Amino acid sequence: MKNGSTRLADVLAVIVCVAVSASLVPRTVLKQRVQARSSACSSNLKAIGLAFHNYHAAFKQLPAGTGGTTGNDDPAKSNQGLLGPLVGVLPFCEQQQLWEQISNPYENNPAGVVFPPMGPIPLFDPAEYAPWGRSPEVFRCPEAHPKAHVESTRVIRSLKLPISALGVTSSYVACFGDGTFMQGKVIQDRPTTYDTRNRRAANRGAFMTSQSMKFRDFLDGLSNTIFYSEVVSSQKRNPGVSEIIRDVSGLSKDPARCLRAAEADGKQFWDFGRGSGWADGRPIYTGFQTVLPPNSPSCTSEHGMDEPIVSASSLHGGAVHVLMADGAVAYITETIDAGDSSKAGVGISADYTTPGMRSPYGLWGALGTRACSETINEHLPQPPPGPVVSSRTGSFSRPSVKTSVWTDKSSGTRLTAEFIEIKDQKTIRLKHTSGTIHEVPLHTLIPSDVYRAIELDVMSKTPQGN
After folding, report:
1. Longest dimension (CA), the chain
2. Is-contact 427 439, C-beta < 8 A?
3. Cα dihedral sign, 299-283-234-83
4. Is there a single domain that holds both residue 427 and residue 308?
5. Could you give the CA distance from residue 384 to residue 251 in angstroms, rounded to a whole number?
6. Which parts of the chain have pLDDT scores under 50?
């Protein structure tokens, strides 16, 4: 009887150990996959940075923010100067075959049309001009594809999450600086016109439409200037995840109107998402400004695509990877000092910030300018599991689990609250600023909030240093 009791105790002990181990596996696996996706995203940015440096070594300049062939209004006969920088660096990131298809006449299409070298406009139907539907893998962050999350744990497998269109989108966007005036306008007129002079004065970033930069133009130093960032991308508008609000009047003089528009009822959206059209260089598609903090909404003014305020974004849990002009990658939280978003960017007309002045958008704005003599006192950190730029005090820590905005995917209702935990793998617990605890079914949140909640839950329960 004693031996039987001993055997039973041993069996029960084994069962308990197995149960405990099984409960830890999903969290451990998720943490590893979170870090792996973050590492892959960082590696892509580093590869893109190396490609730009090799391009500059070959041509003594960078690709223009928008450029290409002009002189023909037929969208099939000219790209009308809209090609983005990523097209130019294709040969420098192991995409020689795709580059040759684009840089030579192309006929492989059902209609038998011969497209000229450098192709039609970047948004031309990829069913007819295939290269525009072949975004290289290095231009797409693995975090942008929710399929990776669906495979992570039973929590996410139970959710039906959207999958961004592959082959058309880009997860990486060029920095157009802290300007707000007509940053998307393609300059084809004479440089003496008032709008063009104002436009050039407003551009202080690594890229601008219709003009190339050289590394000698980065007077703030390559290590102090943001080059590229990531963005949550989708070909079509993805509500609450990848969308652009349109017709926000007075946006360039008060970028904070974009934040208010995102909270308002009756707002209008463009039918495409951020990052759509990987070959199109206009900021609304593949650019961003260091005006609103990372993971802020994106908007256009009453001037349409010519005047956007577009933001960097990610699904990494309250932060974004950014590529610095020297090739380093940093990880910056959405709580970085972003100054006063109610102030206008630089311009030579009334009510705009005077050219040569410091960025009105704090540390975030200063990192976006290439030659404004701002001093960056902090050392930008490497991506996790290392430290990150966090709160508005400029200190360093792990990704913040403090107050964030959480959005219901059906109604669009938003709740500003502090993340506490995920309960029973089904419910997120949030603490409102009033002290009220809210328990919300996880599947009712927009996908980006679901991902953020799961990753914050993993990180908050992982001892620092692990």
Report:
1. 100
2. yes
3. positive
4. no
5. 34
6. 1-2, 11-13, 16, 18-25, 144-166, 385-402, 463-466
Cis peptide before 308 (omega within 30 of 0): no
Token pair belonging to 102: 């684009």
The predicted structure's pLDDT at residue 386: 43
| 301 and 426 fall within a common domain | no
Whole-angstrom distance, CA of residue 137 vs CA of residue 129: 19
pLDDT of residue 372: 85
Number of domain units in the chain:
2
Radius of gyration of the chain (CA): 24
23: which strand partners? none
**pLDDT tens digit string along 235-255?**
888 888 899 999 999 999 999
> In CATH, what number is assigned to the domain containing residue 451?
2.30.30.700
Write down which residue in 384, 400, 416 finishes a domain. 400
Q: 400, 415, 434 — which closes off a domain? A: 400
- What pLDDT, in 10s, does the model give residues 133-168? 999 999 988 754 443 333 333 443 344 433 333 478
The boundaries of the domain holding residue 287 are 26-68+81-102+140-400
